[in-house]
Amino acid sequence: MGKEKDSYRYRPILFFICAYLFTWIFWIPAIFLPESISPFLMLIGLMAPAVVSTVFVMASGSDALKQDLKNKVFGFYKVKWRNVLWAVIVFAIIIVCSILLSLLFGQSLDQFSFTKDFSFTGVGIAGAFFTITVAAIIEEVGWKGYCEDSIGNYMNWFWESMIFGALWSFWHFPLIFIQGTYHAGLMVNPLYAINFFVSAVPMGFVITWVYLVSDRSILACMIFHFFVNFMQEKIAMTPETKCVETIVITLAAAIIVLLKKDMFFESDHVGRLLAMQGGENHDK
User: Fold this and answer.
1) What are the φ and ψ backbone dihedral angles of 277, each rounded to 5 degrees?
2) Scanning 34, 62, 117, 284, which has its CA 20 to 30 A from the CA of 236?
3) Any catalytic annotation for residue 148?
4) Using an 8 Å Cβ cutoff, are 147 and 15 in contact?
5) Percent of the residues in the chain that have a pLDDT greater than 90, as a whole number
6) Beta bridge partners of 210
7) Which of 4, 140, 160, 172 is catalytic?
8) Which residue in the list 139, 148, 233, 245 is annotated as catalytic?
9) CA atoms within 13 A on the CB side of 105
10) Which residues pair with 114 in a beta bridge?
């Protein structure tokens, strides 16, 4: 009986349908409502993937899946702090290289400074800091609690990263129409908005790397996600430089994949990811 319970079949397509549906039914109305109301709806929508992920796990009937989620959320011992530090350093290097390269296109060294405000409005400085913190926490519970594993159980991590990056990117789509959001601010030039969606795909590879090298720890991904959100908001990069940054992130992702070919292209976990209870130790 235990064997039957633990042979759980992941349902990635149903997960994404539910995650999109229960996010967008709150985000789409927020497009047409005042900025005083829309942040509340955006927060509820932001929580949807985490709620859907938790429901999928708790309703699965699989003791192994429930234990796996518990280990990923509360297994602080799983975090490889050296790898998290390396991930933060890598992203900091990406930002530095992006700004330096942007000088070739007429951008300024003044970008090596912090902005006074956040790019989105209506919630204040404290509220904006709270928002990016909560976003990092809630999103990773959703995406790493069930989503990425549900895709990765059926293919290697290279293709999982590609698919996840594209779907995660498009999940943000309604935000470009909601006044006061970072994404709506990009619509001063549609190319800036396109750049955001394109950049999420190589970023999918980077965050999958962070996930795997910390034994699938959600906490490690939360820390990295928060750092990315904070740096993207507070470093005074111009929209043009963020286009350059997409190229640099793509190169960084390619280097990571090449250096970690055994991790991204191994298929031992396919069809038995849950049985492996955390997979191989990719720290080596």
Assistant:
1) 50, 60
2) 34
3) no
4) yes
5) 72
6) none
7) 172
8) 139
9) 13
10) 235
Question: Quick check: 124 pLDDT over 60?
Answer: no
- Per the annotation, the verdict on 282 as an active-site residue is no
> How does pLDDT run across 218-268, given as a tens digit for each residue?
999 999 999 998 888 889 999 999 999 999 999 999 999 999 999 999 999
Dump pLDDT digits (tens) for 40-71.
899 999 999 999 999 999 999 999 999 999 99
CA nearest 147: which of 136, 158, 161?
A: 161
Total length of the chain = 284
| CA 147, 151, 152, 158 torsion-angle sign | negative
